Amino acid sequence: MSKLYSPFQIGAIRLDHRIVQSPLTRLRSDQPGDVPSAMMVKYYSQRASKGGLQIAEATPVSIQGRGYLGAPGIYADAQVEGWRKVTDAVHAKDGVIFLQLWHVGRQSHVAMTGGVAPLAPSAIPVEDLVFTRDGWIKASPARALQVDEIKEIVEQFRQGAVRAKAAGFDGVEIHGANGYLVDQFLQDGSNQRTDLYGGSIENRVRFLLEVTDAVTSVWGGDRVGVRLGPSGTFGSMSDSDPNGLFGHAVAELNRFGLAYLHLIEPRIDGSKMRADGLPPVAAHQLRSVFNGPIIAAGGFERDSAEEIVDSGDADLVAFGRHFAANPDLAERLRRDLPLSPHDRDTFYGGDERGYTDYPCYRDQAIAA
User: Tens of pLDDT along the chain (368 residues)?
Assistant: First the structure.
């Protein structure tokens, strides 16, 4: 049997298998207030498995970090109480759940930020759409952060980590991918600063390291993960030397003794495959650099997930779209059972349809 189905240790936590629920933005929080909803409690409980890791969806650490209406937050006490219901439900099934800490940076709109311009390393326009009460619309022009404001955002990540602990999570993940704020500081296509946060690779990595230092001061490194997207293009992202950049960033992250490094393969653009047949290269390239466990994500099927874990390039594999449509995905993969197809039209926002109405295989078999 593949190692994909065997136990594994990430930091302080022992898992019963290596199939991970990827952090999926689904936009089902209660509005206003960005409080996790009863639908969300059911959704995460359905997908929980004994000793299985779930990484909860991207969660803004401040109002200025919001970019998508319906995304739950972790910047207010009411949100902590809502998340506590989610973590209690997951723990009732002996599952493990981390919270992904998020700041969207320039990928936002004044309707989401309290009326202020979105914040970014540099005031560079972005073409991507954000989700507001008026639907999907173009992001508002961003302004460049002052150094003292950067320090304030680092503190917001720390406070988000504190609230995540109060909400009962088992750990947290820093979202450093997909063209959001941390990624915007990393890549020179979005960072044209000339101060200590821009220019050289060492300077552009500084914000990521400061955020990681702040978050690990709350949790310890062995309950913190970092998600990166080497060579990812989502969010109008680009870099002149991605191999040098991400190699340096990952080498620097070793100092924290992280629970894991979560890598999105560049064959993925947001939630869609850029092209079929592309191999997973990010985990392979960074395996020799990172000293801890690696979670690979992006376009994996059962066979390719088994292959990358058995090869040693990754230790765990995160699934997104398959977890959306198969609440019992870990069991289906282990037993090689057929998978239910997902409905992309229901990914973002809406009601229970395409969210909590997917049956597990056993219930499907009984109904058939």
Answer: 899 999 999 999 999 999 999 999 999 999 999 999 999 999 999 999 999 999 999 999 999 999 999 999 999 999 999 999 999 999 999 999 999 999 999 999 999 999 999 999 999 989 889 999 999 999 999 999 999 999 999 999 999 999 999 999 999 999 999 999 999 999 999 999 999 999 999 999 999 999 999 999 999 999 999 999 998 888 999 999 999 999 999 999 999 999 999 999 987 666 566 556 678 899 999 999 999 999 999 999 999 999 999 999 999 999 999 999 999 999 999 999 999 999 999 999 999 999 999 999 998 888 87
Burial of 233 (0-12, 13-18, 19+ CB in 10 A): middle
In whole angstroms, give the CA distance from residue 257 to residue 216.
9
Q: How far is CA 212 from the centre of its chain?
A: 15
Measured between alpha carbons, how far is 83 from 57 in angstroms, rounded to an integer? 11
The residues assigned a catalytic role are 180
Domains and their CATH numbers in the chain: 3-367 (3.20.20.70)
The span from the CA of 6 to the CA of 20, in Å, is 13
Q: Which pTM was predicted?
A: 0.97
Q: For residue 259, give the nearest of 211, 296, 223 by alpha carbon.
A: 223
User: Which one-letter amino acid corresponds to residue 175?
Assistant: H
Q: Which pair of structure tokens corresponds to residue 161? A: 């980590």
Place of tokens 């969300």: 40
Strand partners, 30: 35
**Largest Cα span, the chain:** 63
Structure tokens at 43: 């959704």
Write out 91-160 in H/E/C secondary structure. HHCCCEEEEEEECCCCCCCCCCCCCCCCEECCCCCCCCEEEECCEEEECCCCEECCHHHHHHHHHHHHHH
Alpha carbons 88 and 314: distance in angstroms, whole number: 30
Distances in Å between the Cα of 130 and the Cα atoms of 105, 135, 180, 216, 281 are 12, 8, 12, 30, 29
DSSP per-residue letters across 227-256:
EE-TT--TTT---S-HHHHHHHHHHHHGGG
